[in-house]
Design a protein that fits this description.
The protein is α/β, with parallel strands linked by helices and about 350 residues long. The protein contains twelve helices and 13 strands. Helix 3 runs parallel beside helix 5 and helix 5 packs parallel to helix 6.
């Protein structure tokens, strides 16, 4: 991508989208447009430092409901972006996925279909679709390789979301085959970082635990309840690492991109992760230490554990020259600092 290329970040106000915007601005890209649905994010939302206001002026934010096909097609026709990062999605943890499966599959299918089709119609040069590691079967071999997609049954608690994301991958693949587009995807492991969701009804495990320990600490509670047994193993990636990997892939030369991601029947996506996992119990212990909580951990075995283990095989991305830089403890400390500065709950 040229520094002056017109770049669209769909879903610029979310955790993933804002991290991609931040990475683009800090890397010198100066022709950015981002979409948001409800609340317009301010400069502080993008954590751009002392030079933030100057950099923020290079981003133009547009309110747009990406589930509305006519509105999306009109937007692409007017804006004609050259490159697209599709980070917009309805996301949530186990509880939200269990309670609102129809919302998760409907909204995500509509957003993906509208954006990918409009990108093709308007001649977008490259599109990066942001997926999720939940696309893999519940009992997939560990670590999970790209080739394990559709090789078994999905985890029931987030099946609707996973199916939508799989459809997004296959839509990119189908448009590449039929129309010669250069659309591909990244499948990040569990993301965390600035602008995450701390609503205990909808949050993923890491921000939910961070909030629980923080509130227990300031309220002087003696214990914190942890969902499930604490035994499932999860891999976590700071959202800034994900954004860095996304830019890295978008800037691959045509030959490498074509060989690695656009040569059907090769998968048109790559895993993005740290390559290191831990138990939920170990994660809780780390967050407890970072927050400074002195009480006890109590495990609620009546709550679902979800998939026993989720660790991505990131060897393909590593062979291209990219590796994560932010270890879990450093990332959690950074995340907690941001949380304290912004007081999200």
């Amino acid at each position: 991508m040229k520094k002056s290329s017109k770049i669209l970040v769909a879903g610029a106000s979310g955790m993933a989208g804002s991290a991609i915007v931040r990475q683009l601005l800090l890397s010198g890209y100066d022709n950015l447009v981002g979409t948001h649905l409800t609340r317009k994010p301010e400069v502080a939302h993008f954590r751009l430092g002392q030079e933030g206001r100057r950099l923020y002026e290079k981003l133009r934010l547009v309110q747009l409901d990406l589930t509305e096909q006519i509105a999306v097609e009109g937007f692409f026709a007017r804006e004609a972006p050259e490159h697209v990062f599709l980070a917009a999605a309805r996301v949530g943890g186990i509880q939200a996925n269990n309670r609102f499966p129809a919302d998760f599959i409907r909204d995500n299918l509509m957003v993906q279909s509208n954006v990918i089709h409009a990108a093709c119609q308007s001649g977008v040069q490259r599109l990066l679709f942001l997926g999720s590691s939940c696309i893999y079967p519940k009992l997939a071999p560990q670590p999970m390789k790209e080739e394990h997609l559709l090789s078994g049954y999905l985890e029931p608690t987030n099946e609707s979301y996973a199916i939508a994301k799989i459809a997004g991958i296959k839509m990119c693949e189908a448009y590449n085959r039929q129309y010669g587009t250069k659309f591909f995807a990244v499948m990040p492991t569990n993301l965390y970082g600035p602008n995450d969701n701390f609503d205990l009804e909808n949050a993923h495990v890491l921000p939910a635990l961070l909030r629980k320990f923080h509130e227990a600490q300031i309220c002087g509670k003696r214990e914190v309840s942890i969902w499930g047994s604490g035994n499932p193993r999860r891999e976590f990636l700071h959202v800034d690492d994900m954004a860095d990997a996304s830019l890295f892939l978008m800037n691959l030369d045509d030959q490498t991109l074509g060989h690695q991601l656009l040569s059907y029947p090769k998968p048109c996506f790559l895993n993005v992760g740290s390559g290191v996992d831990c138990t939920i119990g170990e994660l809780a212990g780390l967050i407890k230490k970072v927050v400074g909580f002195q009480g006890q951990l109590v495990y609620d075995a009546g709550k679902p554990d979800g998939t026993p283990r989720k660790l991505l095989d990131v060897s393909k991305l590593g062979a291209l020259g990219w590796r994560s830089r932010i270890d879990l403890e450093t990332g959690v400390r950074d995340f907690y600092t941001w949380f304290l500065e912004n007081q999200q709950c």
